[in-house]
Sequence to fold (232 residues):
Amino acid sequence: PRSVWDFCLLSLPVISGYFFKRCIPGEYDYLIILRSGYMMSAYSKKAKKMICWNHAEKDTMYADAEKLNFARKLNRLRLKLGYRKVDATWVVADHIREQLSCAFDLSNIYTLNNPINCDRIEAQAQQFQPEVQDSDLFTFIMVGRLSEEKGHMRELRAMAKLQDEYPCRMIIVGDGYVRESLQKFTTEHGLTDRVIFAGHQTNPYPYIRCADALLLPSEKESFGVVLLEAMI
Fold:
């Protein structure tokens, strides 16, 4: 959870930019901002070019300004000033580009589609992963960051209900701050022999290849690239 200090820094972009500049050594050619919440780094002037790469649709809520409460209107102003500080904004879909352009009156915004290299994925999927080879049990897989909004706990609760009447197993690829609570749940509900925590993998494709079904239980998510990778 964000502290009061974090919130103050995010809310005061000029001051935050000053601290960012003081804390990060050196000068750079490009600064890529991966979350609009950290747009304050655009005020640091740490790079010759600054780019916001917006992966999700969260900021499109500001397109209809009349429906915003006072706090959101204030945040919209902060974001608008930040977006105007960067040299370009990249988004992953045309409809996001159109809505952000409307919300913040932007002209330097471009669609950059997520790339999928089919040949590379197919080749890497053939690599050997001994701990997840074919099993008689029906195999589910989840791939992604282990954080609360990704919905892993919801699927583990379902596994706990299924294990007696419908034997199956689950592979969880990824790492994050909720891993400890997920592992604790599997231990408490007797799932340790059915749930494999594979951790972060630079090559997740062999794990996906040996599974029977991919689960994407996120409570909120932009388009999940893992869906396309699993289809391949």
